[in-house]
User: Fold this.
Amino acid sequence: MGEQEQLEFSTYLMSLATSALVQLGEAPDPETGEAHPTDLAAARQTIDILGLLQGKTDGNLTEAEERLLRNLVRDLRVRFVNANKRSPVA
Assistant:
């Protein structure tokens, strides 16, 4: 892989976070620009994946990566709780 083709861990994290925001109905689809209906089950799964990555990578990240992941997980969990209050999971 060339230098520009290499996937950075932070880019991967941001991709997952963007997916969660789309699933929470808080961001448009980055490819189409269209809003999608809220999918709380999918959002929960994506946020859980980020949490799993947080646990599995503990001690193996740069300080910036660790801070990014911690902040993303915290922010998305709060957003999930707020979205769940508006539209509870069936």
Observations:
- The chain has a mean pLDDT of 90.
- Residues 63-86 form the longest helix (24 residues).
- Residues 37-90 form one domain.
